[in-house]
Amino acid sequence: MNRNVQKILISALLMGAGTCMAAPDMRKVVDNSVGPLMQQQGIAGLSVAVVSKGQVQYFNYGVASRETQKPVTEDTLFEIGSVSKTFTATLGGYAQATGKLKLSDKASEHLSALAGTAFERISLLQLATYTPGGLPLQFPDAADSSATMLNYFQHWKPTYAPGAQRLYSNPSIGLFGYLTAQSLGQPFNVAMEKTLLPKLGLKNTHVNVRADKSGQYAQGYDKLQKPVRVGPGALDSEAYGIKTSTQDLAHYVMVNMHPETLSEPLQQAIATTHTGYYTVNGMTQALGWEYYPYPITLQALVDGNSTPMAMEPHKAEWLSSPQTQPANVLFNKTGSTSGFGAYVAYVPSKDMGVVILANKNYPNAERVKVAHAILTALDQ
Predict the structure, then answer these.
(1) How far apart are CA 375 and CA 380, in angstroms?
(2) What pairs with residue 228 in β-bridges?
């Protein structure tokens, strides 16, 4: 039996029988979107997973490495950049579900080194939702190491009142992940790789790619087409450190849409990551994930994943109460490193989603266009 057919049948048994667009039709939709994209953007390799009603189809293109010419498969490991934030958020939700922390806790409660700093007034929720008061997108170069980042936080002064402005930030959610691990009594990488990932059923997802998996790790390429992979930095694991495959991310999408297949603490954790807290320009900020009313126009989704949304402060319009069970919404998250580009989107009410991984960083708008075309075709 063909390997992909086996996976589709196994997924159908796990998640419940269903039907999705016939393979040849979806192949045409994906080919028509991906072919021109790869040529236009100079992408060496790209993998797509299409999830619909418990079934998964994989579409693989190009090579994981120009040097070795090894073809991309659904097992190829890609850096997923900030899609990692959804895993960090899930770990935080798990820590809350198991009584190790509350999102309302002040950051300094979980790290004595932050006593007497601005973080005595900043909650874990504000860190996780980029509203502590203006932490920047990246650490300054002088603070971008594990040895210097705590000193940076100790001396940092907010620009805005906590909760007032959303400014997308690796140090913000990175510190949330760091403090989550503190509450669990484990280093972050251990908590992620030994606790969370196995509980989610993810067998080919890593913070540090093991030697026996190194042959599956794609080579990334920068804008000059030079080989590159992610380097070390302060809170890199917490903010952008996951490496995974379309096969594992398809499973991740399915358990996010069907958390009832998981243990109770994980069900609570996923519910926490799906809870909306405030809105900005039509986007609702959840924990790690961001969501929009569905159906959504292509332009609205492109705007929500635009450079201004990532680089500029926006007033956070907090909901009167957290939106714990949003109906008819599209969850999504983009992610990039110097040599990779990722996008994940799914619509639980339609039981459908898409994963797009590439070994080149290319514009978010182009990722969104491909995903929107696929989801539109699924929803016919």
Answers:
(1) 9
(2) 220
Indicate the Cα dihedral angle 275, 278, 284, 290, nearest 10°: -60
> Is 349 noted as a catalytic residue in this protein?
no
Mean pLDDT value of segment 253-260: 98
Assign 23 a pLDDT band (cuts: 50, 70, 90).
Answer: low
- For the stretch 182-228, pLDDT in tens is 999 999 999 999 999 999 999 999 999 999 999 999 999 999 999 99
Is 82 catalytic? The answer is yes
User: CA distances (Å), 298 to each of 232, 257, 322, in order?
Assistant: 35, 22, 26
Could you give the domains of the chain? 3-84+200-378 (3.40.710.10), 91-184 (1.20.58)
Q: State the Cα–Cα distance between residues 324 and 255, nearest whole angstrom.
A: 17
Per-residue pLDDT, 21: 64
Distances (CA, A) of 311 to 81, 108, 166, 297: 16, 27, 10, 23
Q: Which residues sit opposite 78 in a β-bridge? A: 244
pTM value > 0.85: yes
Structure tokens at 186: 């484990």
CA distance readout (Å), 71 to 43, 46, 105, 203: 13, 10, 47, 21
The catalytic residue among 58, 61, 168, 346 is: 168
Please check the confidence at residue 19 and state whether its pLDDT lies above 50.
no
Q: Which residue has the tokens 């949304």?
A: 309
Q: Mention every residue, 6+ apart, whose C-beta is less than 8 A from residue 291.
A: 274, 276, 283, 284, 326, 329, 330, 331, 332
User: Per-residue pLDDT tens for 158-194?
Assistant: 999 999 999 999 999 999 999 999 999 999 999 999 9
From the list 11, 82, 108, 336, the catalytic residue is 82
Angle at 181 between CA 179 and CA 184, to 5 degrees: 115
For residue 231, pLDDT over 60 is answered with: yes
Does 3 score more than 50 pLDDT? no
